[in-house]
Amino acid sequence: MENEGKKRIWSEYQKEIADDHYFYVRSCIRQSFFPGSEQFFLNFLRNDLGKDVFENPSHTTCTGIGYHGDIVPLSTIMTVVARHFALMKESGYKNIAISCVTSFGIYTELIETWKHFPDELEKTREYLYKATGREFDIPENMAHSSDIIYKFRNEIAARSKNLLVNKKTGEPLIVVEHIGCHYSKMFPKYGVGGAEFPRVLSGMIEAWGGEVVDYPERRHCCGFGFRQYLVQANRGYSLSNTAKKFSSMKPYKPDFVITNCPGCNMFMDKWQYTIKEMEGTTYGVDDESIPVLTYEEVAGLVLGYNPWDLGLQFHMVQSEPLLKKMGIEFDKENKYKTKDGRQMPIPQNLINA
Amino acid sequence: MQFDPFVIPFNIGLYFILIYAVTRSVIWFRELSRPDKLRLQRGFFGKAFGQSLMEIFLESLIHRKILKKNLRIGYMHMSLAFGWFLLILFGTLEVDIFGASHLNAPYKAIFFKFFNPDHGQTPFEAGYSFLMDLILAFILSGLLLAIIKRFSSKAVGMKKTTRLKTLDKVALTSLWLIFPSRLIAESLTSGAYGTGSFLTGTLGSWLASFLSANEVAYPFWWLYSLSLGTFFVLLPLTRYLHIPTELFLIFMRNSGISTGDKTGAFSEVEVHSCSSCGICIDQCQLSFSAGINNIQSAYLMKAIRNNADTYDIAHNCLLCGRCDRACPVGIELSPIRMIQRRAGESETKYTNTWKGYFRNKHSVSVQKQNTKSIYDFLPESNPDKADILYFAGCMTHLTPSIKIAMTRIMNASGLKWSFIDEKGGVCCGRPLMLAGQDKEARELINFNSQIIWKTGAHTLVTSCPICYKVFKESYYLDVEVLHHTQFIKNCIDEDLVKMNFIHKKVTYHSPCELGRNSGIYDEPREVLKHVANLETTGFEDENSLCCGGSLGNIILSQAKKRQIATDVAAELTKKNPDYLATACPLCKKTLAPVTKSRVADISEIVAEAIVLPVIKKNTERYKKPVRESAGIA
Amino acid sequence: MPDMIGNVVVVGGGTAGMEAAGQLAKAGLSVTLIEKENDLGGHLKEWYHLFPDRRPGDEVLNYLKNQIIHDNIKLLTGNSVGGFQKKGNDFILNTSNGEVIKADAVLLTTGFDLFKSERKEEYGYGIYDNVISSADLEMMFREKELRLKNGEKPGKIGIVHCVGSRDEKVGNIYCSKLCCVTAVKQAIELKETLRDCKVFCFYMDMRMGGALYEEMYRDAQEKYGIGFIRGKVSEVGINISNKLIIKVEDTLAGRPLKMELDMLVLMAGMEMSAGGTKLAEAGKLKTGENRFFAPADNHLGSNQSNIKGLFYAGTCTAPMNVTETISHARGAVADIINYLKNNEK
Amino acid sequence: MYKFGFSLTKARVINYESNDRSIVDFILEREPSLNLCIECGGCSATCTTGNYTNFSLREIHILLKRGENEQVRDKIKQCMLCGKCSLVCPRGVNTRNVVFLAKQAFQKFTGHAV
Question: pTM for the whole thing?
């Protein structure tokens, strides 16, 4: 019953995802905290699938964090986003691929706003023109980069070197999918599978042999919550949300968490460390913590990329236990070495190391 | 030396009960508090002694109160008690006069006929035995009633009768057997010797006509002695213990000992003086209106005697005090009930020992009360000075008509008064007391006392009898506490307020807390008489009913309360009056919804009748011409 | 009374349609009753017991069935009306079976559709086992098979009011009016079937306006100890032991509440029937904000449409219970007779 | 344990399963009329105590039913048992007995007097 029901819902939320010629906009958090992910994405699309992905070096942050942190006014962010669209127009692209879910949320929100309040759109055009002399069009197709990986999930499965299966037992790995709130909760129609039972990540996991679990707090926020986090005194609130989520998923003994939002990934990863430090609580089996990976990293592992090239070592929670389960070889030596073999400083008190 | 083995059972019984009585009374005396001991001693050697003897004669033997309440029941008790007393008295005299020697062992008196079978030959003897037969007949007639009562209580004019436990049944049968067996035994003996008077003689000669009387008589003498013996031995375990206990009760009461608020010797004596006559059951409105028949005082006494759980019995009661007034033994039933409600706090408990012949007292550790104040949230208040305070009370705030009426009356009286809880006050504490939570109540009492004290008032008027009772009894204030009916009465006497006579028919419902529980009957009635035509209801004063809304009962469901109220309203409005007057906001609130006729507080009726003094307008002012300077200069 | 000339087409063989057809026939008019399904009765045939007296739905259904056994009535089941034209005073209706019927007056009794609970995705109807709709539960009662998917007896059951009503997220701002009392009725029946199960109703407002409804509510509390929690269930999930976990705010405690349930019953609201909507579009019939047919006059013409000679009855104009539907149908009959007799046409 | 300058906060959610409802069960067994409450708040509005503090019988009733006993235990003792509430209750709940029983229940189950 469950699956038919979900299929029915998914069929109602079919999203048009462009097949080629993407204008790529990066994510502040993703590129600075787990740079391997975006690297993989570009490399995979360009070299493995031979798609055309264009990046304009002069594109900036969408200022979403500032906007949700109540320090960037609406008109400003509209103009910034408009500028991105202008850059896209100038480079002759119509399909935008967005790396960050916060940005994705901002883009959808603004586009919807412009639909309902056309004079806002006019104002924005005016602001942008006055500020930069640029003009812009609203993209024809807008996809989050996880949508694109979802689109090519079967290609990935076809090229897979190691599936999401426990090599020893042959059992599928238990995976918790976490969708960033801003991906589809605001506008379900923009997300693959809608808001209640999103398909984008669970689709990938199923295609790659893993098993997704539905747990009571599945829909719950990761705890980032922007302003709640930005003020130190309020961080307890942010932390408590994460704790709530993890204690709810703990009984399912998940092997890893997959996220499509850089913010979520960062918080679910680093808050595990914080909670362990504060209360000594861990949520994985036998006192380990649960690795939190981006869909790019997971895809990379499936395709047999080197974990260190994917940048798994830059997470707070280390993935060695997971890699062992999947039977992926890795050498400890090169974990913190640069491509040209230089030794990087080795971070202290990592988890699961 | 006249002796026969069959007297042994009787003797055993007799001496047993005598010894028991002595020890028991010694124990009770020891348990009395020191002041009570003194009271009792003073009472014993004072004029109280005479009173007590008188009362014992009237109540324990004649059963006057019961006779008043219910002739047949009264007669039953009297015939048994008084009759038996006479039998023993004259029996003793008999054996003294006609017996071989003087100062005989008691059994000689009891079994006189057996040892002096040929007694009754001379006319004088015949006359005497006629008297004895008369007494016996008197007793038997009562016995007959008793038996009938047991099997159909209606027959003796009682709705309900008390239920019995097995031991009581055994004792009862032995009691019942005593006199019939004596009758038959004596008759047979007299039959054999041709003696005996109209009862024993006739029955005897008839029996002797067809059976050899002498042989048959002997077993009946045994039976007689046996039943006496058993009855005596069982007595302490049964409700019949009330017979001897009541004597102590009377002495103690007349020496000025009262129940108090803790279990003690006196309450013990009271509990054991209950004869389970069941009169309280018929008085109880829960019984005849709400159909609840297991919580009446008789059952409470029984439960306490058997150390049963008294929670429901103790709490499911309106505390209207009707049973207190009705109790022929004069047991202070409500105070004893309140002791049971306080059970959580009471230190002394009893348990039956020695097969229940004795109860020994032992103190139980009280639950640790948290010492810090519960009502510390109550604000500091600084009321204005006033001579007279008006405290409406919680309930009155739900019947604004009374507040308005009282304000009108107060103003009309022209006295300097202040409405102390106009903006909502603090509960007087009585409801907590009724729930057995005196400690909490005390906190509220202190709080209110402070406010009252600060105003420096000399009089405190309240509209709520519940408040009135507690102000009067549990507040230590040097102010005169008045219920508004009393206040109004004073106003009338001192001619402070003028009133018209409203030509309306009024019946009066006397609130329990004001009437029975505080003894205020006259003022309300006189006030009503002063302003309207007061009709009687047949439920005056002591006999007045409870509206059913009483805060005394915390368990009773709203539905049952309504049931009671409906019956009461129906009774009181039989003469369909224009007003059903009461003097309690709670009664008003309870009765108003269940009757067609208008329910009003006395104060409302009075307020309606008040004639306000006409204020003369000073018309001169208007005539004066306006001074120039007043205009533009 | 002399037979009247006139053929009336009644569209929809539910409660309203059957009652109206019966009454019209009795009045001597010739009636054509068109029902899209093969058997008559509409929603009534799914209903186990009716409120407030919990009389078996079949009793009423049988009354209606007898009602329409009449020579003046022509039955067209398994047949629906695509559209119609009005030529002069005559209506020409063409049915799905290609028949063309001429009528002097038309009565639309197209009834309602039950709100599709799937549309409240967060409740997981059709996704989680043991999340069922009020209609499903009625069926269970009819079949005397009150079981969970795994065959066990439910120990703890939740009932969600206002599913698809008073909810602009699904585009229905109106109150379906019957869900509250249905919830109470079903809660009571649940308790009667499974003595020792716990039942909780999650409501926004208890709207027990109808005759004897409040009394039922009181019984539910007093005799059956059913729990009433004020708050709209916001999401449903499952836990590791495969029990339903609901999240709701207990608005009276002012705190969010999390509860574990074996079964969740969704009180689906009433919506304008698809058939009705089709006809409205085809025939330019006025509909209200709630998408039901808009009567010509809310007080004086609740059976009349914006087209002379075309009438409405029953739940195609607004949510109604059986009682109201039947009287509304009778009202329509009076209007039609008046229209035909006094040749207002 | 390391200090970060912030800490985990306890969730406000009422967890129906894990809460202890022995108190309310004790009350309901002896005073079933409590089931009739429709949360109209009449009792709280007329309450003598409520006039001075945030004591609310309506709230207490709901918290008891959810098994949120701690809050109730500290509040229940503030009641003065004056009985106004039972006079205004439209559903005939014997509110006085509810409070009275609640006090007992807490003594019985939590062992300390309230």
Answer: 0.86
